[in-house]
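B., you asked whether I could sanity-check this one before it goes into the benchmark set. Here's the sequence:
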Amino acid sequence: MSLHTSMSRRELLRRVAAGGAAGAATLALPPLLLPAATAEADKKKEKAPGKKEDGYTLPPLPYKYDALDPHIDPRTMEIHYTKHHQAYITNANNLLKEHPKLLAMPVDELLADVKKVPEKIRKGVINNAGGHSNHSIFWTVMSPKGGGKPRGELARAIEKAFKSFEDFQKDFSTKAQTQFGSGWAWLVVNKEGELETVQRPNQDSPIMDGLKPVLGIDVWEHAYYLKYRNERPKYVAAWWNVVNWDEAARRYAAAKKG
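And here's what the prediction gave me:
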């Protein structure tokens, strides 16, 4: 116990002993808490039932900003992740703050039934919750150990749907390169359980159409412009060197299970 705390206790006892109004008033004062007691009280507050952070949060990036270099440069990764993705999260949380039941839903479940969102804010939610979902997938389907070709069940499904991996790669790259303006190209499992490639503008999520994303590339300019300027095809060609086929295979297997 500190000298300051010890002296305060003695002063309190002296006043109580003196009696009268002063003593009574002193007894009405809240008890002094030692630092340890204060910390314990704060700890109990943190563990209060139902206490949690409201809304979406930025998921951890599974690698360092420079991990995908030279195919994706560190500065682009940092800005893309900390600024653009975070902005979508902040905006989605603000749009849904008056609708706590919707905000409590996992983002992909919300997008799968987006008509539940009031029409007044629906487009904003599509843009921003969609941006959050799309980017959360995007980070995971890239890896410093990526590239090459898929194996196993996913490889066989690609060959069935596109005749060969090379034909699939050409088809996917064409969709990425020709998406007009900002948007995405996706490899998805469709409602028939088959693989197909699709384009989506802006941050529209294929999940809204009942499609299950397996692999996606962001072709907004903020994804590549610092390194590749206006040459999107160069960015798309380089991106194949970082594709995380293990994650794509995991997503494909999960989609097939339903």
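One thing to flag: DSSP finds twelve helices and three strands in the chain. Otherwise nothing jumped out at me.
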